[in-house]
Structures are given as structure tokens and as C-alpha cells.
Amino acid sequence: MASSILKTEKLCKSFSNGGLQQHVIKNLDLEILEGDFTVIMGSSGSGKSTLLYALSGMDKPNMGRILFDGKEIQNFSNDELAVFRRGNCGFVFQSVYLLDNQTVLDNVLTGALIVQKNSAELVSKAKALLKKTGLHEEDFKKYPNQLSGGEAQRVGIVRAIINDPKILFADEPTGQLNSASSKDVLNIFSEVHKNGQSIVMVTHDLKTALRATRVLYLRDGGIVGDYRMPVYGEDDLKERRNGLTKFLEDMGW
Q: Domain boundaries in the chain?
């Protein structure tokens, strides 16, 4: 039985908008199990990204509790959150945010060396992970402006997983990619998940959501649907798509 790695209790997040409070997340209770590939879906403005940032410690809730691997993180200071994220979280965004003046290899290593000090071991690990994503030795010395969008996102994923995070968080990671690059990137997510990586991802895309083992549907800051699937495999893709499509249609997607 998988153990709980992330849990919220009565989570609330609101923003001030023209003097009025806009309640984005409302009394949300959620439990993420270790090894799950959880996708968060919902219409625009439903609170998907807000929830992701709160879960990952990138933003603080107004009320409620967040227990991440047994630690209450909602009251951490900004410095404590920064240290906690470095040691426990990996992040992949729609825009990759690679450092323009650093090579592919250096982009992967910059953050990792803050957490792990064995540089020789890290270099070997970084190269091995980059090769697993389909990049080659000659790519390691390239700069971000020499990469395609798909290649850059692969580098972003390696940067996110090199420290073996407890959870890999992703916000629309294929949103700016063409269909071929999207499939390559999603294959990497599926591979790291099969190797035991816990993932929480926000997406609006059906093909992306099909990779999940769990799909949560948000509406008006609350979870209104929770759909489970087995680990992704090409052999059951039609049945998988039909089941998820029906769930999303029932949710009003």
C-alpha cells in the first residue's frame, strides 16, 4: 500500500483584486500517494496553477495545512521554503527558463551542486540522464538558443530530476511544443514515473492527461472529480482515452 507523500487540510488561497478578495482555492482537502502520477485539470480560472504552487511551496496559502513528506510547510519562512524545495521538489514549467549564458550541462548542474557536493558524480549522472532523454554528447556544450523547444524541455526535465526529488511538479510542460516534441517529452515523464517518480502536473491537454494514474478535476477552487487509471501503456490506449474522455465530459470539460 502506497504511503501518503503530500496532504492538504482545509487549504484556502485568495488574492486581493481591486479591494475585493478573490477566493481561488476553498477549503480543499487532498492526499497524494507516493508513486502516483497525478494530473490536475479544470477550466481556465479554476485554480489549477494556484494549487500546484501552493502544494510545491512556491506560494503560501492563506489558511489550512500542507503536509509534505510529514512536514508542515505552510508556515515555513521564505528561506526555509527555498531550502526545502531544493531538497524535495523538481519543477518543469511551460517556459523552460534555462540560463542563456550557460551550456546544457551547466544548466543541469547549477542547481544540483547546491544540494550535492560530489561534482564528478553529478557530472556523470547529468550526462547519463541527458542521454536517456535522447540528447547526445555534442549537445551538452550547446547553449539554449541552439536548442529546439523539445530539446530545451528535455534539459529542463533533467534539471528537475537530477536531485531525485520527492515530487516532480509540472505546469503545462508541453504547452509550447509541437505534437512530435510533446510526445517525446511525455514519454520521458512516463519513463521516470515507471521508475518510481511521484509527479503532480497541471494540464488542459487530453493527450497529456492520458499519461496519469490519477486525474483530479477542479471547479471554483475545489475538487469535483477524481478519476483513477492504471500505469500508462500503449496497448490499452483506446480504452484509456474513452474512459478519461467520458469522465471529463461528465465534469463539463
A: 4-248
- pLDDT the model gives residue 235: 87
Question: What residues contact 42, with CB distance under 8 A and at least 6 apart?
Answer: 48, 217, 218, 219
Report d(CA 204, CA 25) in Å as an integer.
18
CA distances from 222 to 42, 77, 112, 194, 210 (A): 10, 26, 35, 29, 22
Quick one: fold of 4-248?
Rossmann fold (3.40.50)
Cell of 39: 494530473
pLDDT greater than 90 at residue 161: yes
Find all residues with CB under 8 Å of 4, minimum gap 6, and list them: 31, 32, 33, 34, 67
Global confidence as pTM = 0.94
Spatial distance between the Cα atoms of 44 and 14, rounded to a whole number of angstroms? 16
